[in-house]
Specification:
Blueprint: E1 3-15, H1 21-25, E2 28-39, H2 55-67, H3 74-88, E3 92-101, E4 111-118
Antiparallel strand pairs: 1-2, 2-3, 3-4
Helix pairs in contact: 2-3
């Protein structure tokens, strides 16, 4: 089966995440990097978005999952986003997802969690 890779690089958003007192009171920035391997079932028709996975819908699902409620641990959020994408987009066969907190520490660019998951057949 042929595949196509869709990716987002440093999708930036503010989310309610964390367990520390200041994290419980305010949003903080997140950066999201994701690679999605998608099965190609048909040729691309340049005039028909229905012939490809519309990455606007993928982006909207990621943003909604990250901003809909407070999450204490970034590990939990990575799992939730992965599960949502696999549930909502059956054409996705493999996901590599990284979510990072760029303001977590002053002595590094970011800290985060990465996950990689393939769809079970």
């Amino acid at each position: 089966m042929l595949t196509r890779r869709i990716y987002f690089s440093q999708l930036a958003l503010d989310a309610h995440i964390g367990i520390l007192e200041h994290e419980l009171r305010a949003t903080q920035p997140l950066h999201i990097d994701v690679e999605l391997d998608v099965d190609i079932h048909q040729p691309v028709d340049d005039m028909n978005i229905q012939t490809v996975l519309d990455y606007r819908l993928v982006r909207a699902a990621i943003v909604q999952e990250c901003t809909q409620a407070h999450v204490h641990l970034i590990e939990t959020l990575v799992e939730q986003v992965t599960e949502r994408l696999l549930r909502d987009f059956p054409e996705i066969k493999h996901i590599k997802l990284r979510i990072s907190k760029p303001n977590a520490f002053s002595d590094c660019a970011a800290v985060g969690i990465a996950i990689e998951r393939s769809r079970q057949n």
